[in-house]
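stage 2 :: seqdesign
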């Protein structure tokens, strides 16, 4: 049986659950005639001098194949005659890179829209072999590969296209699902063989910027399963196919001053930074956080020329963007391949009147998923589209689906579970953005895991069927208790969206809402009736699965991590 890449695309549009059903049917009917059948007699081929990222791909592939087939496959440098092989990375010769990715540079000089190509991969099945390859980097110190100072070491930045291809292979053809690392968060079906129809797939993500996190909470020891928290979070970062290049943007100028003399000094500093980066670096021109009427520069020039206002959240818009445009023009004249990064951020968040040079990468800071369903949320999505129209190119996003700092929601032990809100928001803005950083602070990491999973699916394919993804999650994770746990998760999402239902504008930052009082939390949102129903669902779910099974342990986990903390508040 032959399935072309085009047919794969058409199948994928019907949704994951339907795709799995379709593929399972064809595999069952035609396994004996499949072009490539991987079983325990197969092997993995990786060149002796393969890059670190390629070797990592081989490790991950074999880890999952052992779970599927019952034993790991031998890893060899050269194919064995007569054996079916999975050939990874550079060992695949002419198939090393997808046609649209071949020769993609590590740091493109023509803007953020082109960075997605670096993460592309290809999967091709033919002639008794499956070839999986993409752009790969050789890394000697993973902890040192974050592109920005003080970045989380679990978000390393190196090209790992072959690894992304391996994960796609496992998802498409094997049925593996990686919701979070460890047995409780990973679904691995058992099989005697894996049938892969002949054909070629080339894929790159829709979003080049695919990032979540900051302080997104502690990981429960039961979930860690012996891993360190860094290793756990890093593995999840890999498996969700997050970004491989951090676009620099976060208050890089480190000053509130907007005087010409200060920005001359910023230009001098920029030249040093860019020269140290080989002439193709990105310089972050964003002023220091807190440039408001509360915290601002008191120099004579700023006091005379900056119209500080308690009420206008865009009072510095034209001045900041003129400074940025002037800086970008001077930098472009000296360093044609360098770029400047700037945020659309309070109090310079409006669309400026001046033109913005094409070497400026714009981040738009807006609330994001938590404002879904509100008038402010609709307005801010319109603003993202307006920025796209202003620039004639897509922007990147910095959003705030958190509950610790930016939303005045210092509420521990309340799950911020809302995958539909994440999906709805990022699908809506997809035509206008190169991607997003979702700043997702929390007290417990597990509160975000399904948000992250859905985010990753939409980052690669904004047309992904989110309802099918969620239904599949409940079925694979909870088996016979899928219906009860689906209602449990749905109730928690509806409750959380009530918590963040009242956003409002402020000159102090882009992500603020009117937090509910403790009385509202306990009597209206997480009322005794709601908590009773949640407890009933967990109890009913537990009764539907056999004691000691992985499904039972998952249900117990979410009872402890999601329900029990709510009941103790």
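stage 2 :: out
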């Amino acid at each position: 049986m032959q399935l072309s890449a085009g047919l794969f695309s058409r199948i994928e549009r019907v949704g994951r659950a339907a795709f799995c059903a379709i593929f399972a049917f064809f595999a069952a009917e035609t396994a004996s005639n499949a072009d490539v059948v991987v079983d325990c007699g197969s092997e993995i081929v990786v060149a002796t001098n393969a890059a670190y990222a390629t070797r990592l791909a081989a490790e991950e592939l074999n880890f999952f194949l052992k779970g599927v087939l019952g034993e790991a496959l031998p890893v060899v440098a050269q194919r064995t005659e007569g054996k079916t092989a999975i050939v990874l990375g550079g060992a695949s010769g002419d198939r090393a890179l997808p046609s649209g990715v071949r020769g993609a540079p590590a740091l493109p000089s023509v803007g953020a829209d082109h960075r997605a190509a670096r993460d592309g991969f290809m999967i091709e099945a033919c002639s008794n072999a499956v070839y999986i390859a993409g752009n790969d980097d050789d890394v000697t110190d993973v902890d040192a590969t974050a592109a920005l100072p003080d970045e989380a070491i679990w978000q390393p930045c190196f090209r790992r296209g072959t690894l992304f291809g391996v994960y796609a292979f496992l998802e498409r053809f094997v049925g593996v699902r990686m919701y979070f690392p460890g047995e409780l968060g990973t679904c691995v079906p058992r099989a005697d063989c894996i049938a892969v129809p002949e054909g070629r797939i080339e894929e790159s993500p829709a979003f080049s910027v695919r990032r979540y996190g900051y302080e997104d909470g502690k990981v429960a020891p039961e979930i860690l399963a012996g891993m360190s928290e860094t290793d756990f979070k890093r593995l999840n970062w890999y498996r969700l196919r997050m970004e491989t290049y951090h676009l620099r943007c976060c208050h890089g100028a480190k000053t509130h001053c907007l005087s010409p003399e200060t920005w001359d000094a910023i230009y001098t500093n920029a030249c040093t930074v860019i020269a140290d980066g080989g002439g193709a670096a990105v310089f972050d021109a964003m002023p220091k956080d807190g440039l408001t009427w509360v915290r601002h520069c008191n120099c004579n020039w700023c006091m005379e020329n900056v119209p500080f206002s308690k009420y206008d959240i865009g009072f510095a818009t034209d001045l900041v963007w003129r400074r940025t445009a002037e800086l970008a023009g001077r930098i472009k004249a000296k360093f044609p391949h360098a770029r400047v990064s700037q945020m659309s951020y309070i109090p310079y968040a409006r669309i400026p009147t001046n033109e913005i040079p094409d070497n400026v990468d714009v981040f738009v800071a807006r609330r994001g998923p938590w404002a879904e369903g509100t008038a402010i949320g609709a307005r801010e999505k319109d603003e993202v589209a307006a920025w796209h129209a202003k620039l004639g190119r897509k922007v990147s996003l910095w959003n705030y689906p958190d509950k610790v700092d930016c939303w005045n929601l210092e509420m521990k032990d309340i799950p911020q579970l809302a995958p539909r809100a994440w999906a709805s928001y990022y699908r809506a803005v997809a035509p206008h953005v190169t991607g997003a950083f979702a700043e997702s602070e929390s007290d417990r990491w597990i509160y975000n895991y399904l948000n992250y999973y859905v985010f990753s699916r939409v980052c690669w394919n904004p047309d992904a069927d989110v309802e099918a993804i969620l239904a599949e999650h409940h079925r694979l994770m909870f088996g016979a208790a899928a219906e009860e746990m689906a209602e449990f998760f749905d109730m928690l999402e509806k409750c959380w969206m009530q918590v963040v239902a009242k956003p409002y504008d402020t000159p102090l930052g882009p992500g603020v809402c009117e937090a509910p009082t403790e009385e509202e939390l306990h009597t209206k949102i997480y009322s005794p009736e709601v908590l009773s129903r949640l407890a009933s669902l967990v109890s009913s779910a537990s009764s539907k699965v056999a004691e000691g099974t992985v499904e039972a342990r998952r249900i117990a986990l979410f009872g402890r991590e999601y329900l029990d903390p709510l009941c103790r508040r």
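stage 3 :: structure notes
- Residues 1-32, 92-113 have pLDDT under 50 and may be disordered.
- The longest strand covers residues 433-439.
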